[in-house]
Write a structure and sequence with these properties.
The structure holds 2 protein chains of 2 kinds. By secondary structure, chain A is mostly beta strands. Chain A has strands at 4-7, 10-13, 19-25, 31-37, 43-50, 53-57, 64-70, 73-78, 87-94, 101-102, 106-110. In chain A, the strands form 2 sheets. In chain A, strands 2, 4, 5, 6, 9, 10 and 11 form a 7-stranded mixed beta sheet that branches. In chain B, the strands form 2 sheets. In chain B, strands 2, 4, 5, 9, 10 and 11 form a 6-stranded mixed beta sheet that branches. A 5-stranded antiparallel beta sheet of chain B has the order 1-3-8-7-6, with no helix packed on it. Chain B starts with a strand and ends with a strand. Classes of the chains: A mainly beta, B mainly beta.
């Protein structure tokens, strides 16, 4: 009964590949997010979806595309992976302006 | 350009004593602040929040103080327990729109020594 779940937990892949990370929340929240935690441990927001509409799209390369089939899911697709994409990616959700609930993270390693 | 700063990368405290974690911000539009705790290999967990209309918020052993004029907030943990050992992130946001942009600080690693 995990509130925010992500799969896979670890992802190792070659440069140039395309990969996806899935996220699901069972909290009934209306907003979901993707964050990237880089090697310096900074958590930076990438995307936010509210009721299936993109609200925030920070300066993220268009190789990254969020896909939300419904309110409970926000998947992250990454095309043409680069070495610099290696990081931990966190999914989160919130109800309106309230605090965010985070998933356990996906550690992506690009070789 | 770091809008949220946590200048102490690490902090060690004896069990039972007070832990004080500090956070400074530069954007005067920030009006909502949160603290998260993160254990290794887990996602951040929400601890406590404060809006700019208050200067203090308390929840059990955790108290957050906000000094708007100094653009400074702090998290006090009293008494500190070994289970509090984790990385603590300060986060801030501005505005009242959905999907607001939370800006996180770099975190402070707290070690509570038995």
């Amino acid at each position: 009964d995990t509130a925010v779940s992500q799969t896979p937990k670890y992802l190792v892949t070659q440069m140039g590949n395309d990969k996806s990370i899935k996220c699901e929340q069972n909290l009934g929240h209306d907003t979901m997010y993707w964050y990237k935690q880089d090697s310096k441990k900074f958590l930076k927001i990438m995307f936010s979806y509210n009721n299936k509409e993109l609200i925030i799209n920070e300066t993220v390369p268009n190789r990254f595309s969020p896909k939300s089939p419904d309110k409970a899911h926000l998947n992250l697709h990454i095309n043409s992976l680069e070495l610099g994409d290696s990081a931990v990616y966190f999914c989160a959700s919130s109800q309106g302006l309230s605090e965010q609930f985070f998933g356990p993270g996906t550690r992506l390693t690009v070789l | 350009d770091q809008q949220v700063k946590q200048n102490s990368p690490s902090l060690s405290v004896q069990e039972g004593r007070i832990s004080i974690l500090n956070c400074d911000y530069t954007n005067s539009m920030f009006d909502y602040f949160l603290w998260y705790k993160k254990y290794p290999a887990e996602g951040p967990t929400f601890l406590i929040s404060i809006s700019s209309i208050k200067d203090k918020n308390e929840d059990g052993r955790f108290t957050v103080f906000l000094n708007k004029s100094a653009k400074h907030l702090s998290l006090h943990i009293v008494p500190s327990q070994p289970g509090d050992s984790a990385v603590y992130f300060c986060a801030a946001s501005a505005g009242d729109n959905y999907g607001q942009n939370f800006v996180f600080g770099p975190g402070t690693r707290l070690s509570v020594l038995p």
